[in-house]
Amino acid sequence: MLMNKLHETDPEIYETIVNEVNRIENGVELIPSENFVSKSVMQAMSSVFTNKYSEGYPKKRYYGGQEHVDVMEQLAIDRAKELFSAEHANVHPYSGSPANHAVFFALMELGDKFMDMNLGSGGHLTHGSPVNFSGKHYRNVPYFVDRETELLDMDSIRKIAEREKPKMIISSLTAYPRELPFKEFCEICKDVDAYSLADINHIAGLVVGGVHPSPCSDTDVTTTTTHKSLRGPRGAIILSKVEDRLHDKYHPDSKKNLAQLIDSAVFPGLQGGPHNHTIAGKAVAFKEAMQPEFKEYARQIVKNAKALADELMSLRIKLVTDGTDNHLMLIDLRPSGLSGRGKQVQNALDRAGITVNKNSVPYDESSPFNPSGIRLGTPAVTSRGMKESEMQVIAQCIALVIKDYKDKAQQVMIKEDIAELVSGFPLYPDLTVLE
Ligand SMILES: *Cc1c(COP(=O)(O)O)cnc(C)c1O
Fold first, then answer.
1. Cys-Cys link to 273, which of 53, 124, 305, 431 (CB 3.0-4.6 A)?
2. Identified catalytic residue from 228, 231, 306, 375
């Protein structure tokens, strides 16, 4: 994309963009929630739709001039429904956190009880963290992974649900490297009259690619960002059933079905004008995700994660649950004698050209600022075209850095090797070219 105008009018911002392009071109991106969008998605996002106000939904707007916005948003909705086999789709949410907020706002009263995975076990901030709206305004009953197996224990989750009778149970992951058993979650929800929310932010690309079970046929509501493994623009969508299964119990006075409850929670409940340029980008990404190549992409994400995990384990790096079924893995630094050193290892890997994030491991004794884990994922490197053999090289580099995280000279050398490795996988070769 030509950026000559920006270069002319705002060289300072232009320079930060060029620097960022160079950073991603020359390094390895292993943050599991990140990805690289196509040029088509970027073009849709930098289109004139950024100018338009369109409060409301297609054919029910508050301002004029909506004939093209309506067509565009309807395409996004129809594609989202088809892609996920969902009955209803709302494509407005600005991001994953506002999407989850909208579901709470639609279904729960202040102070209502809900269940979710504890942050330390691999849940998300919006699932009841005491610093988040979900923990401040609603009553959170967390469930945990088993201390021995580090896996979800569905019997104990059922017991907690039967005892606590929550109004909603969330199934989701941000650092859990195994499959989520959506069917079992939904059975528990049915038995205790709770809404089921599947938050598939991280794994949406795997779900539509057919390498992770889909929750959409069973759950009441599914939320997902569009910018993680789904490889679209920063934003989110909410998918749901049309009928409110628990209408008589929880919303007897409402004339709204579930789809209408969700839509009115998003607008006018929480948001104003939708970000139309982003919605156009979402529609483009949904079309890309419907192509056969995307299935191959999703399969390769999982293959790459397995290759990375196997090589790390063969180099005596301990992984939570001893491996992965999805796109991510969590290194447990404690057996390497590095309890609470996640931050130092993250910084050392940064110096070696490998971008990761520090993360708590299950039952971590250290604080979230100095946790004992490193989280890795493969959606972004797979978008660059890397395969199993590159994963092995990257794993060897990571193992070297972990074993001697104070050796800065070694990190400088590894950074050169990494730059050499990734130079064969250019991402946006003409992005910053001037006319
Ligand atoms: C990323 C994520 C979110 C939040 O998405 P943002 O776009 O960062 O607000 C919510 N839940 C889960 C499980 C996530 O992984």
1. 53
2. 228
Q: Domains of the chain (ranges plus CATH)? A: 44-289 (3.40.640.10), 292-422 (3.90.1150.10)
Atom of ligand 1 nearest to the CA of 96: 5
Q: What is the DSSP string of 377-402?
A: E-HHHHHTT--HHHHHHHHHHHHHHH
Answer whether 79 contacts ligand 1 (Cβ < 6 A): no
Residue pLDDT, tens place only, 332-346: 999 999 999 999 999
pLDDT for 354 beyond 90: yes
Q: How many residues does the chain have?
A: 435
What is the arithmetic mean of pLDDT over 231-235?
98
Is the distance from the beta carbon of residue 101 to the nearest atom of ligand 1 less than 6 Å? no
Catalytic residue among 222, 223, 225, 278: 225
Cβ of 172 below 6 Å from ligand 1: yes
pLDDT at position 122: 66
The one catalytic residue in 25, 29, 150, 199 is: 199
From 20, 111, 48, select the one nearest 355 (Cα to Cα): 20
Spatial distance between the Cα atoms of 248 and 236, rounded to a whole number of angstroms: 29
**Residue 53 is among the residues annotated as catalytic for this protein:** yes
> CA nearest 277: which of 211, 307, 232, 331?
232
pTM above 0.85, yes or no: yes
What residues pair up with 198 in beta bridges, in sequence order?
A: 171, 222
Ligand 1 centroid–CA 352 distance in Å is 27
Residue 302's nearest CA partner among 174, 178, 123 is 178
Task: Read off the pLDDT of residues 168-198 as tens digits, 9 standing for 90 and up.
Answer: 999 998 999 999 999 999 999 999 999 999 9
d(CA 246, CA 398): 49
How far is it, in rounded angstroms, from Cα 103 to Cα 110? 13
3-class secondary structure, 196: strand
Please state whether beta strands 328-332 and 354-355 pair in parallel, antiparallel, or not at all (unpaired). unpaired
Contacts of 91 (CB under 8 A, 6+ apart): 73, 76, 77, 80, 237, 274, 279, 282, 283
Phi/psi-derived region of residue 360, left when phi > 0, alpha when psi is between -120 and 50, beta in every other case: beta
CB 164 within 8 A of CB 115: yes
pLDDT for 435? 44
Task: For residue 432, name the pLDDT band (cuts at 50, 70, 90).
Answer: low
What are the tens digits of pLDDT across the range 366-375?
988 899 999 9
Under a CB-based contact definition with an 8 Å cutoff, are residues 240 and 221 in contact? yes
